[in-house]
Each structure stands twice: as structure tokens, then as C-alpha cells.
Amino acid sequence: MSFLDDFYNEIKDEVTALARANLEGFLEDIKKDTRLFLKKSGKDLQRWMNLVKTNGLTDRDFVWLLKSKKDLMELAALKKAGLSLVKIEETRNKLLGIIARAALSLLLK
């Protein structure tokens, strides 16, 4: 398995729970968009995690850098369905929070 596959496996239950709690009809779309985001930003994510691990980057800086990639998380199905921009942005922020927590907890293992 690749780093991205392993990482996605770490977060898929939380991503599923988020979608079921807030966007039941979009579960598969959110999973797909999350995987696409990880694919697009995976090299940076892995590099930043290594920097945090070697104290070359603080946890806070890591989260800031991750959030700077927010625009790569398209959530295309939610946009097509006409969900409000507020709901899409809220979902995007929650997904980034899941990714950040998972990345930082993996570093503690």
C-alpha cells in the first residue's frame, strides 16, 4: 500500500461519519473528493509530516500549510447539488480538521 492509501484508511471512518451526520446522500462523493484531495496534496502532506517529525515544522505551522491547500478540495458533487457555499466551506474545514488530526496522531505512534 502507498502512503496515501494508508493515510486514507486512517481517516475513512471519520470521513464516513461526517458525511452520514451532515450529508447522507453524498457519502461516496465526499469519500471520492477526499481521496482526490489527498492525491493532489499527498507529496506536500508527507513532506510536512516528516518536517514535523524532525522538529523542522511546528504542529501549528503544519495545520496552517494544510489549510492553505483548501482550494484543492473541490467537493464538486456538493456544488452541483446546489448546497450553500457556507455548507460546502463548513464541510471542507471539517475534512481538513480530520486530515490534520490524523496526520499529527500518526506522528505520535
Overall geometry comes to globular
Radius of gyration: 14 Å
Counting copies of identical and different chains, the oligomeric state is: single chain
Largest sheet: none
Q: Unreliable segments (pLDDT under 50, ≥5 consecutive)? A: none
Helix coverage percent: over 70%
* Count of individual beta strands: 0
**Helical run tally:** 5
Q: What structural class do helix, strand and pairing data support?
A: mainly alpha
Q: Gap between N and C termini, in Å?
A: 18 Å
Order of helices and strands: HHHHH
What fraction of the residues are assigned to beta strands by DSSP?
A: under 5%
Q: Which whole number gives the mean pLDDT?
A: 90
What's the domain count? 1
Question: Can you walk through the features of this model?
Answer:
- With 109 residues, the chain is mainly alpha-helical.
- The mean pLDDT is 90.
- It has one domain.
- 19% of the residues are buried.
- Helix content is 78%, strand content 0%.
Can you give me a brief rundown of this structure?
By secondary structure, the chain is an all-alpha fold. It has 5 helices and no strands. The protein has helices at 3-22, 27-53, 59-67, 76-80, 85-108.
Please give a handful of descriptors for the protein shown.
5 helices; 109 residues; mainly alpha; 78% helix
